[in-house]
Amino acid sequence: MERMGGGYYVFIYADGSSGMTLAAFDPFGCGYAANASNGKPRLTSRKHGGTFTSLAGDLERLWTVSKPLASPIEFELTPNITFKFSGRTSILARLSCQGLTEDYEFGELQKTTSDSYLSKSIGVVKMGPERGKQILDIDLCRQAAAQARERREMMVMKDLGASSTLITQDMMKKHPELKEIVGTTDALVASVTRGDWHVDVFNDTQKMRDTLGDSLPTLRMGDELHSDPFSRTLEGMPATNPAMLKQLLQDSGSEKKGSLPLTAVLKGASGRYRAEHGTHYKTPRKRLRELKAKMYDTFLKEEAPKGAVVVVACLASWLPQSKRLEPVLELLNGEMYEAGKARAAASSGGARGLPPPDPAAAAGGPMMLCKYEMSESRFLRDRHNINTLPMFLMYYDGKLAYASNTLNGFGTSRDDLLAQVNTTRLDAQRGSVLPPDFRFGATDNKLTASFADTLSKTSAHGKLSSAP
Predict the structure, then answer these.
(1) How confident is the model over 336-354, as pLDDT tens digits?
(2) Among 71, 116, 307, 402, which residue's beta carbon has the most beta carbons within 10 A?
(3) Domain that holds residue 361
(4) Contact 154/6 with Cβ under 8 angstroms?
(5) Phi-psi category of residue 253: left, alpha or beta, with phi > 0 → left and psi -120 to 50 → alpha
């Protein structure tokens, strides 16, 4: 039972390997109760009405708002759970097990649904800036809040904590069924006072250990507890075995210092954990360089490598498409980083084995991957009228050479990016670049066209610049 306001979400599950849901209802009394044998719903409840079917699936009862149930529906969810439905406002699940019976009542609370702030209004403001607003009676609001608290107390589950176990006279007025419990408790206290029971209170650990002897499992490091490892009692648990405890607390011997010793033991003893990699393990991905609006143009014109195609991926951290694209770009960035280290080692004579493949070869030359967070600034949004994300901007020697949300004519994959970088490099070397004030039109950023289509749109207005 999960509380929501004055009501509860109620879920009843079958205790078996299948974990079948026997019943599920929301705070408005809408939901279903299923057959335990096949899981098919027997009773369905909606705001406009409901149905009840037999075990064979035949419709037995039907009700609506205008024609409610004349008598409650009662059947067994399991041999231990009896389900009783009188309407959305009165639903009962009775659990009986080993001589104990527990009732759980739930459904829609009429008081909660019908009561609103309009019922506490004493008028409407006629003039001034507050005109049209309701004037509320504070006393009625406080009274409604107190009633809501009482309703929540009435529906609270019976697993009260230690601080709520004292039964007062006010609680017995609200819960008359507590009087019988109080009477039984008073009789128990009187029997203890007469000496009918032997009560021994241990005020310190030493007295408890001396009295109970070896039957009490301890964690004393000087003792050895020899017990059945397959026992389900407390004495058979590994934590009560000092030898096992010593083994768990030993140093893991991991290269990475500062980790808990127990962590390495658990990783090695359970298949659910990844094997210990140590400090030698590194992710193949490498973070993209993030460009900021303040230094955007300065980086492209002065700091970016000459002759390299700088790919700026315009992303938004909240967008699912951007979250899927960024790891792909980081993996490609890591490949270029490792290839660069291999070339540096080869030039210095310290190369070992075959060098990793260089993605720059497929891109036709050097390239650099960067990202720009569109949710932090409207700089690129205002400059190029970008309305679709992710968006790719490619620069060559500080000049914008490509702008589109698709690559290689139709795709957005890794291979499409490398092919588009190669095409953009050749176009930029021939002098075909976009104007500095390039802006997407109403539909430019939604086209799945190639770079040539984008150039044809800009050249029609005479804005395409070409090198002599």
Answers:
(1) 998 888 888 887 776 566 6
(2) 402
(3) 289-346+356-459
(4) no
(5) left
